[in-house]
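Continuing from the previous page...

OK, I double-checked the sequence for Cysteine protease RD19A-like against my notes and this is the correct one:
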Amino acid sequence: MYGGDSEVEDLNSKLKFGKAYAIDEEHDYRFRVFKAYLRRAKRQQKLDPGAVHCLTLFSDLTEFKFRTHFVGVNRLRPSADSQKVPILPIGDLASYFDWRYHGAVTLVKEQDSRGLRWSLSE
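Thanks. Re-ran it with the corrected sequence; updated structure tokens here:
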């Protein structure tokens, strides 16, 4: 997959994932990031031939941008004046509780133009 022409792979990736960039500078920057991803994937594939490295809709993102936009919560250190939450007794709780029947879970929503979907609760 990663031995071919990076421009062809970039075009295939953009078509597959519906990528479009507003200005040439953005395209050029994303293409450089994409080529770096291909080099990294090729290196990783050599290190672990049993693994499968493929193009994803994230292949034109830097690791920093991916982490800041798509990887969980940034865990902050508690401030000096923060207090611990007390552990409450759980002896009288139901053994099963389905939040769907209590209005706490919504349908999956599309979050942006890339078609990413997240399951949210309100």
